[in-house]
Design a protein that fits this description.
single chain; about 500 residues; 21 helices; 5 strands
Length: about 500
């Protein structure tokens, strides 16, 4: 319900447009993403229509379910009303979770499936019921279909389980047969698609590994401790509790696995949202830990402790949810930086700083961009009308496909899943080319290069985007297009 107040926000996020466009056709796989988020987009359109609000309803339900499951994890750990209230309040009030809980992106579903898998594991260890093995199989299968990063959780848990000598707690292999079959049946169409396409996920992972291995421990730990707001007091207590509590030493391996996940992610370019699904487990343990400590205090102190989580969340709302206008948001952010000196939310992926958080900036000016490109594409030329529009940016391609009229030339790209809708080679006589490259960098790509317009946007990362008309494409430019396609596919 928190997100209902600003569900439309400033518009579609760049990633949301991408998934909405890919979700128009039901597919079992894509070169650069897993398909689950596009299925949600497809189902959302069938249920709620093609409005921005409609596309964000199901992510909100998934995030609400994540809160509920966090409460159930707390309950299975031994916590009751106070522990559950603290644990669920921590995840509700975490700015990191507030920022990801309403967008049509893999992150919100990743959080859900990590949490569901953690719950199923703890519930099985508590009850030994085979039904929780089935739940683990289903959570893991759909988690993989959403994002392969859930395998990091599985890997670290297995390694920690072996290190801690927990082999005696393993279920009998006969109990695993049917859940394993269900797991494989769910994944079978996606695996078949990967096989048919020569496993593009391997190529994509290799490409990402080349560019994302960038250690910035300072920035990662800054995100780790500040992007959860006051809830850091809950998850950090949960981690310590997992590692030190003698009464629940059977869960020590989960604490060790959590440390391993944090350590691995710290060297993978330090993006906090990669491992947000880990924190509901820590919030649950933290809620239980704080409840044990607060049981000796009066009710007023307990209410004050929980209330502080919500107070901090209230001040962070304009940073993570678009409740203000763009002008007021910029003012709020400037005042926040001036009063606190904390400017990290304004840092963009390229290292520059904006006047509003990047994920807000990525919600703006897509219709403005489309209008600019449409106007450029219809400008008269003695060399004829442009046959296609080429861009290397998946967000730009998605926006043009989503907002463009029938008059807009066909949009193609070689560096994302839109390559499935793009030609294998550039044989066109004249094209529109969108890039931030200028001058000599573009001059050699075609016999005739004309700069038609430049996008100027104070809010969006499309600021400085150049719109070129290219005629008589060079052989080198055509070969580069073909090589870019081969990053993901072999055909």
């Amino acid at each position: 319900m928190i997100h209902v107040i600003a569900l439309k926000g400033y518009g579609y996020h760049a990633d949301e447009i991408y998934y909405v466009e890919l979700g128009k056709e039901w597919q079992w796989g894509f070169p650069d993403i897993s398909p689950f988020v596009t299925w949600v987009a497809h189902i959302s359109k069938l249920l709620f229509g093609s409005s921005l609000t409609g596309y964000r309803i199901l992510p909100c339900f998934f995030s609400a379910a994540t809160v509920v499951i966090t409460g159930y994890i707390t309950y299975f750990l031994g916590g009751r009303r106070l522990a559950i209230t603290i644990a669920c309040s921590a995840i509700i009030c975490s700015p990191a979770f507030l920022a990801t809980s309403y967008l049509l992106q893999p992150a919100v579903f990743d959080e859900f499936f990590w949490t569901l898998l953690s719950f199923a594991l703890i519930a099985y260890l508590q009850t030994r019921k085979t039904s929780f093995l089935w739940l683990m199989a289903i959570a893991l299968a759909f988690g993989i279909l959403n994002k392969y990063s859930i395998l990091l959780l599985v890997f670290t848990v297995l390694v920690a389980w072996l290190i801690c000598g927990r082999r005696a707690t393993a279920p009998h292999w006969k109990k695993l047969i049917l859940p394993a079959i269900v797991f494989l049946l769910i994944l079978a169409p996606h695996i078949a698609w990967q096989f048919e396409q020569n496993f593009p996920i391997y190529k994509f992972t290799t490409q990402v590994a080349k560019t994302n291995f960038d250690i910035d421990l300072g920035d990662y730990f800054l995100q780790l401790f500040f992007f959860h707001g006051a809830a850091v007091a809950v998850w950090s207590a949960g981690l310590i509790f997992l590692m030190t509590n003698r009464q629940s030493k059977e869960y020590f391996f989960l604490g060790l696995a959590s440390l391993m996940v944090i350590a691995i992610l710290s060297v993978l370019k330090g993006k906090l949202y990669y491992g947000l699904g880990l924190f509901p487990l820590l919030f649950a343990n933290g809620g239980y830990c704080w409840a044990l400590m607060l049981n000796h205090f009066k009710t007023a102190f307990k209410v004050m402790f929980i209330g502080m989580l919500y107070v901090f969340a209230l001040f962070s709302l304009p940073v993570v949810i678009p409740i203000f206008s763009i002008t007021n948001n910029k003012f709020y952010m400037s005042e926040m930086v001036e009063l606190t000196g904390f400017s990290r939310p304004l840092r963009y992926e390229d290292g520059t700083y904006g006047k509003m958080p990047q994920f807000f900036a990525d919600m703006t000016d897509w219709e403005y961009l489309t209008t600019k490109v449409e106007n450029a594409s219809i400008q008269p030329s003695t060399l004829g009308k442009a046959e296609v529009i080429l861009t290397d940016d998946y967000a730009i391609a998605g926006a043009l496909k989503h907002y463009g009229s029938n008059e807009l030339p066909f949009v193609i790209s070689a560096k994302n899943s839109f390559l499935n809708q793009s030609p294998k080679s550039l044989d066109q006589h004249t094209i529109i080319y969108l890039t931030k490259s200028t001058g000599l960098a573009v001059k050699g790509v075609a016999g005739k290069v004309t700069l038609i317009d430049t996008i100027h946007s104070n809010n969006s990362h499309i600021n400085g985007l150049c719109i070129y008309r290219l005629s008589f494409l060079t052989k080198a430019f055509k070969q580069q297009y073909a090589r870019d396609r081969l990053i993901f596919v072999e055909k």
